[in-house]
Amino acid sequence: MTDVAEDANDIEKLYEYGERLNESKDKSQNVEDYEGIIRAAKGSIKAKQLAAQLIPRFFKHFPSLASQAVEAHFDLCEEDELGIRVQAIRGLPLLCKDTPEYVSKIVDVVGQLLAAEENVERDAVHKALMSLLRQDVEASLTSLFKHIESSDEPIPDETIREKVLNFIRDKVFPLKAELLKPREQMERHITDLVKKSLQDVTGAEFKMFMDFLKSLSIFGEGAPTERVQELIEIIEGQADLDAQFNVADGDHIDRLISCLHMALPFFMRGASNSKFVNYLNKHIIPVLDKLPEERKLDLLKNLSESSPYTTPQDSRQLLPSIVQLLKTYMPKRKTGEEMNFTYVECLLYTFHNLSYKTPNATNSLCGYKIVTGQPSDRLGEDFSENYKDFTERLTNVEDLARATMKKLTQGMAEHNKAMAAAKTEEDKASIKIKRQNTTTGLRTCNNILAMTKVNGVNFSYQRVCMTVSLN
Predict the structure, then answer these.
(1) pLDDT(361) > 80
(2) Mind listing the pLDDT tens digit for each residue in 238-276?
(3) Distance between CA 463 and CA 351 in Å, rounded?
């Protein structure tokens, strides 16, 4: 009975403190009342619940007690009783409503509370964070990103990092138009925060951040080239293009190819692909045969799609490697070698685009004379053996492509008959896949035939405009 009476007495005192503070015109004079409220944070369950309401309400009037009040309120956020925790969390944004200097500290704590397991508690945390973001978006974002950005000290709790990442993805990014104001200033701020967070991210996390960055207006369609180049530099950093390449490092290969594919839209907008191209030429192409087959194909496809945006200088450096690869994958007549049509398609497309940028290099490489009027045309030298070898391979490729097209056309007719006779949806689905593969094969052969047209020794080059098949 004594404990119950003491609890009732504590609650009564709390109400008295609150009433006096409410009625006081100069609340800063009621220091003892506010100290009593802070002490109640260590009292009974009901006292703690009431203290969780009163501490934020009068917080701004007692700057000399701010540290004590904040620590007492943080303790309430960690109470065993769910009701106390939820009440305390709801009060956190009020602590800095009129004292913005506390936003960073409060957001840091609330970010840690994202790991809460109870739905009602987690909902309170989300609402508190959104309220804090609307109070001071710059300070709030800076504090939140500290939970995910790389630092010399290891992040103590990976769960919190993941929860903060999910919150930023699901709650902050979709509201960028509302939260990021003034727009250019805040978009620049969050871009800088994202950059600091990219040193140790998964592939999925990196893609999430890049998708967000390219959605910002400062990187939009009207953005200057230097802004687009900034995104490319971020991708180059993720691809680790300054590292010595190890062909046994499958993770680096995957990351490199993924980043090159991600960079393609930015090459189209004027950003430089020079660092990627030179890295591929120096480190990857010389050991291409050692890559896994699926990675080799992805690399050749991405390289071919990047080739239209290569500078003349980089094209001149890369072209000899591409010609050598063509000789590797385009068999001579009557050798009986099988040919990978998609490899050849990608390489021919790359060859055409690079030759377009540096036409006077083709004479010495494959005997095709394109007169540009420059000394590098090397018209006085005899490259007839190169021409004979290369054209023989091209002719054989044409023959193989035509023969394959004939078979594929026959196969398409058989697929159509089979589809008409199919009884079950499962059978129809299987035939559709076969028909799609056949269509892709026909398109690949057509592309190859378009790219193997040559007009004698005085090769008349026309730029090929087509999309490489992505089968």
Answers:
(1) yes
(2) 999 999 899 999 999 999 999 999 999 999 999 999 999
(3) 10
Q: Which residue has the tokens 């943080």?
A: 74
Alpha helices in 58-152 (DSSP H): 66-76, 82-95, 103-112, 119-135, 137-145
CA-to-CA distance for 365 and 51, rounded, in angstroms? 83
Look up residue 90 and give its two tokens.
């709801």
Residues 6+ apart with CB under 8 A from 367: 383, 384, 385, 386, 387, 388, 390, 391, 457
CB atoms within 10 A of CB 260: 27
Query: Percent of the chain, pLDDT > 70?
Result: 93
470 confidence band (pLDDT: 50, 70, 90): very low
CA dist., res. 150 & res. 159, Å (int): 15
Model confidence, pTM: 0.85
What is the DSSP code (8-state) at residue 325?
H
Q: Which two tokens stand for residue 342?
A: 């998609």
CA distances from 232 to 105, 222, 323 (A): 34, 16, 28
Tokens 């490259």 correspond to 383
List CB contacts of 85: < 8 A, sequence separation 6 or more.
76, 77, 78, 79, 116, 121
Q: What's the rounded Cα separation, in Å, for the pair 466 and 305?
A: 10
Backbone angles phi, psi at 450, to 5 degrees: -65, -25
Maximum distance among all Cα pairs of the chain, rounded to whole angstroms: 113
Instruction: Give pLDDT, residue 468.
Output: 36
Per-residue pLDDT band for 334 (boundaries 50, 70, 90) equals: low
Distance separating the N- and C-terminal Cα atoms of the chain? 80
Chain Cα centroid distance, residue 264: 13
**What letter would DSSP give residue 154?**
P
Instruction: Report d(CA 405, CA 446) in Å as an integer.
Output: 8
pLDDT digits (tens, 9 = 90+) for 110-149: 999 999 999 999 999 999 999 999 999 999 999 999 999 8
DSSP label at 334? T
**Which residue in the block uniquely carries the two structure tokens 């062909």?**
247
Q: Is the sign of the CA dihedral 437, 439, 440, 444 positive or negative? A: positive
Instruction: Check: CB of residue 145 under 8 Å from CB of residue 197.
Output: yes
Does residue 155 or residue 252 have the better pLDDT? 252
Q: What is the DSSP string of 28-72?
A: GG-HHHHHHHHHHTTS-HHHHHHHHHHHHHTGGG-GGGHHHHHHH
Mean pLDDT estimate for the chain: 89
> Please, are residues 51 and 41 in contact by the beta-carbon 8 Å criterion?
yes
Q: What pLDDT shows up at residue 464?
A: 38
pLDDT reported for residue 86: 96
